[in-house]
Amino acid sequence: xxxxxxxxLRSGQIHAERRGGERAPLIIAIPGLSANLRGFDFIAExxxxxxxxxxxxxxxxxGLSEVTAPGTYGWAAHAHDVLAVxxxxxxxxxxxxxxxxxxxxxxxMARIAPERLTHVVLIDAVGxxxxxxxGPILASAQRLGAVVPxxxxxxxxxxxxxxxxPWSEYWERYFRxxxxxxxxxxxxxxDRAAVLEDAAYGGTxxxxxxxxxxxxxxxxxxxxxxxxxxxxxxxxxSVRDAFEREVxxxxxxxxxxxxxGINTHPDSVAAIKAFLAS
Length: 278
Prior knowledge:
Layout: E1 3-8, E2 13-19, E3 26-30, H1 41-47, E4 53-57, H2 75-88, E5 94-99, H3 101-112, E6 117-123, H4 134-142, H5 151-161, H6 169-178, E7 179-182, E8 185-188, H7 192-204, E9 218-223, H8 237-246, E10 250-255, H9 266-277
Parallel strand pairs: 3-4, 3-5, 5-6, 6-9, 9-10
Antiparallel strand pairs: 1-2, 2-4, 7-8
Helix pairs in contact: 1-9, 2-3
């Protein structure tokens, strides 16, 4: 059972959920651009236990965390938030897991406070994505704020798009958490302005520049199924190869899933557990 937590940070209120042993080694999970903590449920349920704590959070502007003023976002700002959450629960050293944009936040943490990170897990993001993926990602962010008649209608649209596959009850949970009732139906909790500010930040900052700071053991999980056919990878093979060459403490495990399905794939869980135990 997950414990809900709220942290009143100087930057704003952060919502999180914690599982596993409170005194056990901890891994903190950071969602992607418009994502929420429910995206880690599959992994959290299987990685956490008496010997491993797992804390997933909503970044500011997403989920149940606070929407803060323009100019308060960006990878470094989120990285400081995660470090402040660790301070609030009294954890000095921990592992960090980031998916998509959350991987960039994790790498920023390696730059800001490398001495605090025991392991870094990057889920299908470490460098420049294939250009064909930019349009769909930006379009998804632009649609935030739109009102849909019901949760069921929203989920039906997502399923029809076919990008979240394989569909499972974990994605059902994810979208039911994400959607808030408003007049006329429901809309996503993720704030459009916050997401677009982070998207713009990512457009002017190169994740590759953060690789030299990955001095701790680092695992890259790469999705081998493109998000956009035929070659729309968030982590292209060329980026994978460069990471293997340039990050001495880096390890790559490929998972037969796309950018979303990798979060609910048993091979991802197995790779994370083996990596944290090494």
